[in-house]
Design brief:
mainly alpha; globular; 293 residues
């Protein structure tokens, strides 16, 4: 039967309490990391900029939710691989998750750069669009966090998040004072720069934690080709976006679908090599194997 009797030692009980405490501490740090931006912007610059900021970031936030759902769908399998000591397989699964994040997040980010102004123009009005510079910075901020949350979820499966919490504290210590300094001078642009700079500690620190946990590290070359491809697509989208403003939902929907298909094919074709494409497709077809039984 699934139930039974067992002896619980005080040492083991204290271990569970300690682990719960670290997770509780992380919940508070995460709240500061994800929600302090709007509070600081409203306090330092007023509600008008907060409105523009929230509306301009809407599509990218929705994309981040999509990525998060995909990642959390395979986390039970990741935990199983870690618990059984299959670190090579875990690292390979992590590589596929990162590449999948790159494809989905990069595609949506490119479409947002291209069509976000038209979307906001039709939805609320052009006066609520914070500008293309802010739009691109928001894409970068959310795109950066997509990869951070991937490694964050993997670290959670180890149940040892002490170093992760410390890095989160450093992130808050850097980003909030930077925001206090830059927002009064540069508004939303200053806020985005503060977020990007502060979260660099997590961008660098979390992969380092994962490396120490699984004793394997993704080589830097894994990211070079996708990065070059993505930044070229973002630059092209930025140039095109300056000359278009769609005036009907039908136009936006049609061009959005066409752009999404073209961009995702370009990212897969030029951003990934043949081996990565074949392995990613095979992994995607076998993804049910990583789910909990």
């Amino acid at each position: 039967p699934w139930y039974g009797w067992g002896r619980v030692t005080i040492k083991k009980s204290l271990s569970f309490v300690k682990t719960s405490g670290w997770f509780m501490g992380w919940a508070g740090i995460k709240m500061l990391i994800l929600n302090s931006d709007k509070v600081l912007l409203g306090f330092l610059s007023g509600p008008a900029l907060v409105t523009q900021y929230v509306i301009t970031e809407y599509l990218m936030r929705a994309a981040n939710g999509t990525i998060s759902n995909v990642v959390h769908g395979v986390i039970p399998g990741i935990g199983k691989l870690y618990g059984s000591g299959h670190y090579e397989k875990l690292n390979k699964a992590r590589e596929y998750i990162m590449l999948l994040t790159w494809i989905i997040g990069g595609t949506i980010g490119t479409v947002v750069i291209l069509l976000n102004e038209s979307f906001i123009h039709l939805w609320i009005g052009s006066n609520q669009f914070a500008g293309q510079t802010v739009n691109i910075l928001i894409v970068l901020v959310v795109f950066q966090y997509m990869f951070i949350q991937n490694d964050s979820a993997i670290i959670n499966t180890t149940l040892d998040i002490k170093q992760k919490v410390y890095i989160g504290v450093i992130t808050v210590i850097i980003s909030i004072p930077l925001a206090l300094l830059l927002v009064p001078l540069y508004g939303i642009v200053g806020l985005c720069i503060a977020l990007l700079a502060g979260r660099m500690t997590m961008t660098v620190g979390y992969p380092w934690i994962v490396k120490n946990k699984i004793k394997v590290f993704l080589p830097l070359k894994t990211y070079i080709r996708p990065s070059i491809t993505l930044f070229i697509l973002w630059f092209i989208s930025y140039k095109i976006s300056t000359g278009i403003l769609l005036t009907t939902w039908a136009e936006l929907l049609f061009i959005g679908i066409i752009a999404t298909i073209v961009i995702i094919l370009k990212i897969i074709t030029f951003g990934l090599n043949t081996k990565q494409r074949n392995e990613l497709w095979a992994y995607f077809r076998r993804i049910k194997l990583l789910k909990s039984e």
